[in-house]
Write a structure and sequence with these properties.
With about 500 residues, the protein is an alpha/beta fold. Helices cover about 35% and strands about 20% of the residues.
C-alpha cells in the first residue's frame, strides 16, 4: 500500500508528525544555526543550536543530528539532515534524502512523518516520492506475534518553502508508483523459494500486467521445448518446478524506439550437479533478481507512459540436481542454433539468458539490455555496492552512461576483452559455456554476446547484494533486486524525448 502524502506550503515549525525531518543546505561555518531553524531552536530553548555547535554541523551531505523535542513542537523527534552543496544536488541526492527520512521514521516506529524541504527543491518532488516509498519498504509478511511490527510509516507531509505548483501532487504520485515498482521486485526476491518458483513468478507477472494494462505472454515448458529453447530446457529439466518464459510489452502509438530488457530468473539455484556448498545456499532464492527487475520495470513504465515501445523478457527456471538434470560434459543446442558444451551446471544463468537474448533479437529492437545476478567474479572485481556493465557498441555505452548519471545508481563499465574469447572456445561444440577462473565476469559477457547478435546490446552483471546498505537506505533485500531499475527507466524516458 502506498504512503499517504500531502504537499503544502509550510515552515518547519508549522508541521506536525511523530518525526520531523528538516533538510539543510551546506553552510560555510561549522555549527552555525541556519536562519530556517531559528524558530525551532527558540521553541526548544536553544537545545538545537547547542547540539549543532557540539557536532560541528555544517549541512554536509548525509550529516545528521537528532534530538527529542519533549513536546515543545509538533513532533516528538526532530532530525536535521545535511543536503550538501545546492549546486551539486539533483534527483539522486534528493531521492536518497527522502529514503533516509522514511527509513529513519520506521526505525523510530513512527506512523507519521513531516519533511521540511528547503527552497529550490520543488522541482524534485518525483524524486521525493520515489525515495519515500523506497525508504519505507519492509518485508514483514511472514512475521507473526511479537515479531510483527506494531506500527509502520503511513502518512507523510511535505512542507515546501513556497506554494506548490498545480502538478506537485502528480509528480509525487508518479514517484511513488516508480518506487512501488522497485519494491515489487524486492517482494518477489524476498519471497521464499517454496512460494516463488517459475510458475508462480509467471502468475505474479501476469497479475502485474493486468493491473497496469500491459500485454503479457507466458510460455509453459511444452511451449519452451516446441520453440527450441533448448538451453532453458537443459537448466530447468532437473526440477519438478517446470520453467516458464515471460514476455511483457508496452506498445504505445507513435513509439519512437523499441527497447527490450531481458532478466535472468533462476528462482532457486542449487548449482545443479555442480552443487554449491551448503553455506549461503539459502540466499540463492535471490538468483531471480534480474527477472524481478525487468518485470517491475514494466510497472514503472506504465506509470510514466513513455512514447517508447518497451518489452520485458523473464527467463525463469529452478536449477536442481535430479536424475534428469543436465550434466558437465553435455552438449546442448539453443534457440539461436549454436551448440553449447556444458562445463559447469552452476553457470546456468548465462544459458537461460542465451535463449532469451536470441528471442529478444527476433523483436528487431533498437537496443537490448540484459540484467542478471550472473557472476561472483563481478563482485570480487567491484565490491558489493557497484554493478558491472558491458556494451557492444560505444554509442549504446554513451546512452547507457547518461542514464546512469541521471539515476545515480552505482555501476561501472567493464571491457569485452577479445583476448579472453579463447576461453570459451570448445573443441566439441560451437561454444563452451564458461571460461577459466580468472576474468569470469568478462568471459560470461563474451558468452552472452554470442547470442545477442551484432546489434546494440548492454549486459548488466548485478552480482551480489548491489542494493544493500547503499546510501539510499534501500534495505530489506539481500539480492541485487531493484538495482538498475531506475537506470533502465531513465534510459527509456531519455529515448522518448
Amino acid at each position: 500500500m502506498l504512503l499517504e502524502i500531502q504537499v503544502r506550503a509550510a515552515q518547519a515549525l508549522e508541521l506536525t508528525a511523530d518525526v520531523l525531518v528538516v533538510g539543510i543546505f551546506q553552510t560555510g561555518g561549522k555549527g552555525a544555526l541556519p536562519p530556517s531553524l531559528k524558530q525551532i531552536d527558540e521553541a526548544l530553548g536553544g537545545a538545537l543550536a547547542k547540539l549543532m555547535a557540539r557536532e560541528e554541523f555544517s549541512g554536509k551531505r548525509d550529516q545528521t543530528i537528532a534530538l527529542s523535542t519533549l513536546g515543545r513542537i509538533g513532533a516528538e523527534k526532530l532530525m536535521v539532515v545535511g543536503l550538501g552543496d545546492r549546486r551539486s544536488l539533483g534527483a539522486p541526492e534528493v531521492r536518497t534524502f527522502a529514503a533516509k527520512a522514511a527509513r529513519g521514521a520506521n526505525v523510530d516506529k513512527a506512523a507519521s512523518l513531516a519533511i521540511a524541504l528547503p527552497g529550490g527543491l520543488e522541482t524534485e518532488l518525483r524524486a521525493v516520492g520515489e525515495g519515500l516509498e523506497l525508504g519505507a519498504y519492509r518485508f514483514t509478511k511472514y512475521l507473526t506475534g511479537d515479531r510483527k511490527p506494531k506500527r509502520s510509516l503511513a502518512t507523510v507531509t511535505l512542507g515546501l518553502a513556497s506554494r506548490p505548483k498545480p502538478n506537485a501532487r502528480s509528480l509525487v504520485s508518479i514517484g511513488q508508483q516508480v518506487g512501488s515498482a522497485v519494491n515489487f521486485s524486492r517482494d518477489l526476491s524476498n519471497e521464499p523459494p517454496n512460494v516463488i518458483y517459475p510458475e508462480t513468478f509467471a502468475t505474479a507477472a501476469e497479475a502485474l500486467a493486468k493491473a497496469n494494462g500491459l500485454r503479457v505472454q507466458v510460455f509453459d515448458f511444452k511451449e519452451i521445448r516446441r520453440r527450441g529453447m533448448k538451453l532453458i530446457d537443459a537448466v530447468g529439466r532437473g526440477s519438478s518446478r517446470e520453467p516458464r518464459f515471460i514476455h511483457m510489452s508496452w506498445t504505445p502509438k507513435g513509439a519512437k524506439r523499441k527497447l527490450v530488457f531481458v532478466g535472468k530468473g533462476i528462482t532457486f539455484d542449487t548449482g545443479g550437479i555442480s552443487i554449491k556448498p551448503a553455506a549461503g545456499m539459502g540466499e540463492m532464492k535471490h538468483d531471480m533478481s534480474g527477472a524481478a527487475n525487468v518485470v517491475a520495470l514494466m510497472a514503472a513504465v506504465a506509470a510514466v507512459k513513455p512514447k517508447v515501445e518497451v518489452h520485458a523478457i523473464a527467463s525463469c527456471a529452478e536449477n536442481m540436481p535430479d536424475g534428469d538434470a543436465y550434466r558437465p560434459g553435455d552438449i546442448w543446442g539453443s534457440l539461436d542454433g549454436k551448440t553449447v558444451e556444458i562445463v559447469n551446471t552452476d553457470a546456468e544463468g548465462r544459458l537461460v539468458l542465451a535463449d532469451a537474448l536470441a528471442y529478444a533479437r527476433s523483436l528487431d529492437p533498437d537496443l537490448i539490455v540484459d540484467n542478471a545476478t550472473l557472476t561472483g567474479a563481478c563482485m570480487v572485481a567491484l565490491g558489493s555496492t557497484t554493478a558491472g556493465w558491458y556494451a557492444s557498441h560505444d554509442d549504446a555505452a554513451r546512452e547507457f552512461a547518461a542514464a546512469l548519471k541521471q539515476s545515480g545508481e552505482s555501476m561501472w563499465r567493464m571491457p569485452l576483452l577479445e583476448e579472453l574469447r579463447d576461453q570459451i572456445k570448445s573443441e566439441v561444440a560451437d561454444v563452451k559455456q564458461a571460461g577459466d577462473r580468472y576474468g569470469g565476469s568478462i568471459t560470461a559477457a563474451l558468452f552472452l554476446r554470442e547470442f545477442a547478435g551484432t546489434g546494440r546490446w548492454i549486459h548488466c552483471d548485478i552480482a551480489g547484494p548491489a542494493s544493500v546498505d547503499r546510501p539510499t537506505g534501500w534495505s530489506q533485500t539481500k539480492g541485487a533486486t531493484g538495482h538498475a531499475v531506475l537506470t533502465f527507466l531513465a534510459l527509456i524516458e531519455r529515448s522518448s524525448r
